[in-house]
Amino acid sequence: MQLWELVARERIRDTLARYNWSGDALRLDELAQTFCEDGELELRGSNLVRGRAAIVDLLGSLLFHRSHEIGLDHYGRYRDVFVPVDDHWLIRHRFVSTDWSAPESTMAR
């Protein structure tokens, strides 16, 4: 493995950590910064949105709930395309698929 690959992997990990931390903290503007300026977010069953402002609008229109109960509630997948932008690797396109959810889950379709 070459040095640039190791650097790219670490920067992608950093982007994913910032995405998850920002999402958990409901800091949607910070979450949007993990995307390219014209980045795309596609939620299974929803329309694709393009651009940081549209991502914030979409996520801000959803209802969020925090729970202190731990258990299997849902599972799914992310398919991401990352691109280098300056010293970062940002999300160009993210497809989110919730493949299963418990009937009472906040992620129920």
Content of β-strand: 25-35%
Counted up, domains total: 1
List the strand order in the largest sheet. 2-1-4-3
What is the distance, rounded to the nearest whole angstrom, between the alpha carbons of the first and last residues? 42 Å
Total strand segments: 4
| Low-confidence segments | none
Mean pLDDT: 90
The assigned CATH architecture is: Roll
| SSE succession | HHEEHEE
The CATH C-level name is: Alpha Beta
> Over all CA atoms, what is the radius of gyration?
15 Å
How much helix, percentage-wise, in residues?
A: 25-40%
Shape: globular
**Class from helix and strand fractions:** alpha+beta
Please summarize what this structure is:
With 109 residues, the protein is of the alpha+beta class.
Structural description of this entry:
The chain is α+β, with helices and mostly antiparallel strands. The chain is built from 3 helices and 4 strands. It is globular. The termini are far apart.
Topology, pairings included?
Layout (H helix, E strand, L loop, with lengths): L2 H22 L3 H5 L2 E9 L5 E2 L1 H9 L13 E12 L2 E14 L8
Question: Any descriptors?
Answer:
3 helices, single chain, Nuclear Transport Factor 2, Chain: A, 109 residues, 4 strands, alpha+beta
